[in-house]
Fold this protein.
Amino acid sequence: MKRKVEMTPEPGDGFELLNVAILGTGNVGTDLLLKVMASPVLRCTLFAGRRDESPGIRMARSLGVPTSSSGIRAILESLNTIDVVFDATSASDAKAHWGLLEPLGMQMIDLTPASLGKFCVPTLNLQECLDEPYVSMVTCGGQAAVPMAHCISEATEGLSYLEIASASAAASVGAATRANIDEYVVTTERATREFCQLENTKTMLVINPAEPGAVMRNSISVAPSERVDMQALSAAAASMEKQIRSYVPGYRLVVPPVATSDRILLTVEVEGRGDWLPPYAGNLDIISCAGVALAEARAVGRS
């Protein structure tokens, strides 16, 4: 059953600011920082990475955000100023970071595919994740495609197999993501199985080298032999698109559910707001916005 995503509060609504630290100053972390700074209820108290002159740290410093090149050590030395840590590093680093933060009672929202605990896809289970100490935001492809995969599973009697194919512009896929492709696939498939009550699924990731960069696209498909209620699926997909657009404005259902001779499919496109990279980098927007939606709901919930 789908859950309503709470809308972002307006400034002056009386909500206490939630202090967040961002660990990782690459593409995802820097895009996330800009979205946190635009939030009326979030405040970044530390932006920490490993390179003092990385583009992300230079930009953050120019905006007056406290920065550090000491990584997790800087986080551990500043816990009294932090309510929650966003991890935007790599899967292996996130596991090590959580091993240090968990015993100290710190909360973590993980934007890597480390997949250490509770998955969060805001349109599907936001309320269940508000009090979890560790939350995985799955992957960018998971945030874009799993909600629509859930729509297909809900409209299908006895769904047996489902495929997700995600394509992102090469320039938007950083070194950590490239190093975590296996983890990306495994984590997206695990989330698909969990949210769709499905045993058999496959995820494919395409890093698109086209110039200029192509907007992120995600196709979700099943075999034509599946017993899909196309009318119910079309209605559910349109509703899901509207829900996701409430926190990811560039999310669009570009190919509504259609039955062809060899499959039943739908395709979504995610255009970014151009906060850090150009608008083709919807893969950054979809996971950054999902993480911000969770943090904002926590801020609202504690006020």
In short: Confidence is low (pLDDT under 50) at residues 1-9. The first strand starts at residue 18 and ends at 23. The chain has two domains: 18-138+284-302, 140-278. The radius of gyration is 19 Å.
